[in-house]
Write a structure and sequence with these properties.
single chain; mainly alpha; Rossmann fold; 2 domains; two-stranded parallel ribbon; two-stranded antiparallel sheet; 8 strands; about 60% helix; elongated; disordered C terminus; transmembrane helix
Amino acid sequence: MTNDEINDIVEETIIKMGLQACAETKIGNWHLRGISSGEKKRLSISIEILTQPTVLLLDEPTSGLDSASAFFVIQVLKCIALDGRIVVCSIHQPSSHLFYLFDDLLLLSNGETIYFGDAKMAVKFFAEAGFPCPSRRNPSDHFLRCINSDFDKVAGSSLKSQAPTEIPMSSNSQMYLSTEEIKAKLVEEYRNSEISMDIRQRVRELAHNEQEETVLSKDRASWWKQLCILSHRSFLNMLRDMGYYWLRIVFYVLVSITVGILYLNVGLSNPAIYGRPKCVAFIYGFLICLSVGGLPSFIEEHKASYRERISCHYGEAVFVLSNFLSSFPFLVILSISSGTILHYMVQFHPGFSHYCHFCLSLFCCVSIVETCMMVVALLVPNVLMGMGVGTALIVLMMMVSPVFRGVSDLPKFFWQYPMSYITFAAWAIEGQFKNDMIGLEFDPAVPGDPKLKGEEILLKLYGVQLNYCKWWDLAALFCILTCYKIVLFATLKYKDKASKLLHRLFARSIFRQTPQKDDVNNISVVP
């Protein structure tokens, strides 16, 4: 499709959904007021009908809306149905105005079909079954009162809490039956009704006349176009959402200034032998923890992308790559701003290559932690649990850093193999130690003794191996970042399948543990 054709479809959809007045308005978020809830509902429907689907399924499209907004949404859905599309939606307690907009009605109760047919004939069916709708009552309220067993529970609890009173008798004595009795009678009446026979006849005719049709797959945008559009949209979202990156950049700068003041011009004195590694540990520990703050924003972004991915608009690889590309400028700003402040205030090893190594190391660490937070967001049920799990993971990764104990001194099981190789902290801190201390000479503890070389300090005091250079540590960080992105891709692609498999296995185990009906009947009671 050309751009003009796409724009025409978009404009036609906006007009059809009545969104002309808010076409240029931002949707809004926690700090920016945008469109109303009714307009958001219509916008969600508009996004789905842009692809011109044959069947449109909606789950409670009027929930949370006022009567006017609900009426407008259902009126729009009726117009879509009149265009030749099939619209199926579940709805709870519609008003009488909404009820008469529907063409067909399906009433279900505990999996049983109470009624399926013309919506306008439902009132007549209930009247013929002995449960007429009062003249001034909403038909949908009457139907739910007849088939929803929760009303019996409410009535029973009310009678227990109040003194018994005389209940006025109605002209229709069948209305005093329990909901289960009313439902059973309605199910039997519907099975023997002409409406049910007509429906079954129509189904048989459709099955008899069914012919194989070749369904042509819709034209999808190219992989490159999907990547460009998603990257641009995600970048705009990050740019407009203050909480996604801007606030974190401010916090990073403030914390960097604080660390710079605490370790201002740490120098080459003997206490600096311990001061410089402490500063590095502070940077890669506390500073990197601020990346956990991006968890809520990613969860909101994932909600929108999940709906689009299950509709096969694009794949998981495009989403992962577009998310990285759109966040790249913000991560560069964050790394350069924090790295510049820390490098020149603390007075790390001078030189442009040392400065570049430090900024690149910060960029890799922040990217790794953010990717880790994305994986956590996909696996936990809410934001609070995600914050807790994410922070615990960062602390776990920091435990294997050379600041606390040399890698060779760690217990070999789990901590040395594989934790010291798969966490960012070990490689990042070791690389920054080399970047900062190799080539420097520090004052001795006793005046007059020869100066202490940085290489000797790293090897003897911190157990840092010098058989490979700092750039290999940086390359290891890039490899870990790539592996984490692959883990994110696999989580997006296989999470739902794994969840369904686990639920199926759990259900089977519960079913096997539950005694069967025949087994219960065969149990003999010994007096």
